[in-house]
Design goal:
Layout lengths: L2 H20 L13 H30 L1 H17 L6 H13 L3 H12 L5 H29 L6 H21 L14 H11 L2 H14 L3 H14 L2 H11 L6 H26 L5 H20 L5 H12 L5 H10 L7 H29 L4 H17 L7 H4 L2
Helix pairs in contact: 1-5, 1-6, 1-7, 2-3, 2-4, 2-5, 2-8, 2-11, 2-16, 3-4, 3-5, 3-7, 5-16, 6-12, 6-15, 9-16, 10-15, 10-16, 10-17, 12-14, 13-14, 13-15, 13-17, 16-17
């Protein structure tokens, strides 16, 4: 395997560990505030909203200057953003969300870099491994938090500060990793200062992003519907961000340690299933058909989450079924999309997609934030609706997507 690919996977892993390690202690930042679930939703919305312009801009810059500088910028941004979480207070959380959102071009660049160096016959496999790495990071992050809190016997208000210090150290390690990776993109498209200014303006306009995507779809038919599917998958997966609020403030009343253990189980199972699925099956199945099947399963899964009550065993049963269905959708869509990109505009397309997905995340965060004020169970019915739309879109044709993917 290409050494650069291994380093990309390592960078992703550390980045996800940093983000997921902090997740269980995020409620500590808004304790004492009125309606804490709303403040958590607003913090998430802030982070995602800023990516509306930062993601396509960084994706375009990676096409012009290479993937490696963007990796370094993103890693440095995460490190500085984590420093803003100390001391533990609500203002630090919101400052972190702003700064991290500005430099969070990591994943558009990651997908571009993986596609740069992947043979077509291994593209689904390598994209699937990326998804597996992300899932593994979601295991190791809470695991690291849980171990640190348990081994050192940290309790109460000190938990958040200890976890944040660990995240700062890990994000510093990631900066070092970005200096070891070789460049994956050689056919660069020059970008002068005027073009850069124009790119910033266009990136701030969601309608402009959508029009750019429609133009890309004319040259690469099928791209638009894949992005639409990913937008609604993103909105349905807003429950990943909502889970901490739901299990900590709802009937479960889980503390940081219990949340860590829950995400450890979720991540470990997801890693195992993703690895088997993408290593053995993803290239051999009809992706359209299985997207429909997985989406249909997603509807009752979300309804079950809403009605889990205080039953921890039931929650673990639901998340197990989730790992075999909903959690596999994202990688299938990314693999289909990667086939429709070229070396010249790969970073731009993934950047536009990340920005529109960021807008979708912003919308779904606002929706579940408002619904949670009425009843903490209501957001899961919104997520069920979104996954139903994914199934409907998957039923539609993929245009000129690779012929093998269209066959029923």
């Amino acid at each position: 395997m290409d050494r650069r690919l291994l380093l990309i996977y390592a960078i992703i892993l550390v980045d996800v560990i940093v983000g997921s390690a902090i997740a269980p202690v995020m409620p500590d930042f808004v304790k004492g505030l009125d309606k804490p679930q709303l403040w958590l939703a607003l913090a998430t919305a802030l982070f995602l909203g800023i990516q509306l312009f930062s993601a396509p801009l960084l994706g375009r810059l990676s096409d012009s200057y290479g993937r490696r500088p963007i990796f370094r910028l993103s890693a440095l941004g995460t490190f500085l953003a984590d420093l803003l979480l100390l001391p533990v207070r609500a203002t630090g959380l919101f400052a972190n969300r702003v700064f991290d959102g500005l430099t969070n071009g990591m994943y558009a660049t990651v997908r571009s870099a993986i596609t740069d160096i992947s043979p077509k016959e291994h593209l689904f496999r390598n994209m699937g491994i990326e998804g597996t790495i992300v899932s593994f990071g979601f295991v190791l992050g809470p695991m690291a938090s849980g171990l640190v809190l348990t081994v050192f016997g940290v309790e109460g208000t000190d938990q958040a500060a200890v976890v944040v210090r660990m995240a700062v150290i890990l994000s510093a390690i990631n900066i070092l990793l970005t200096f070891l990776i070789g460049e994956t993109h050689t056919n660069r498209t020059p970008l002068d200062t005027a073009q850069l200014r124009a790119e910033v303006v266009r990136s701030l306009n969601v309608a402009s992003l959508w029009n750019r995507l429609r133009l890309k779809d004319k040259a690469k038919p099928g791209l638009l519907i894949l992005v639409l599917m990913q937008i609604f998958v993103t909105m349905s997966q807003g429950y990943y961000n909502y889970f901490v609020t739901f299990v900590s403030l709802g009937e479960m009343q889980m503390d940081a340690r219990a949340i860590s253990y829950f995400f450890m189980y979720f991540g470990l199972l997801s890693v195992f299933i993703n690895f088997i699925f993408y290593a053995r099956f993803a290239d051999r199945i009809n992706q359209r058909r299985w997207l429909i099947i997985f989406a249909l399963f997603g509807i009752p899964i979300h309804v079950a989450y809403a009605n889990v009550g205080a039953s921890l065993p039931f929650l673990y049963v639901i998340i197990t079924v989730d790992c075999f269905t909903i959690s596999l959708i994202w990688g299938l869509i990314e693999g289909l999309m990667a086939h429709l990109t070229t070396e010249e505009d790969r970073g731009e397309i993934f950047g536009i997609n990340q920005a529109l997905s960021g807008f979708a995340s912003l919308v779904t965060t606002g929706v579940f934030g408002v619904l949670s004020l009425i009843d903490l169970r209501l957001p899961f019915y919104w997520f069920a609706f979104c996954i139903a739309v994914v199934g409907w879109l998957a039923w539609q044709r993929f245009g000129q997507a690779p012929q093998r993917q269209q066959n029923p």
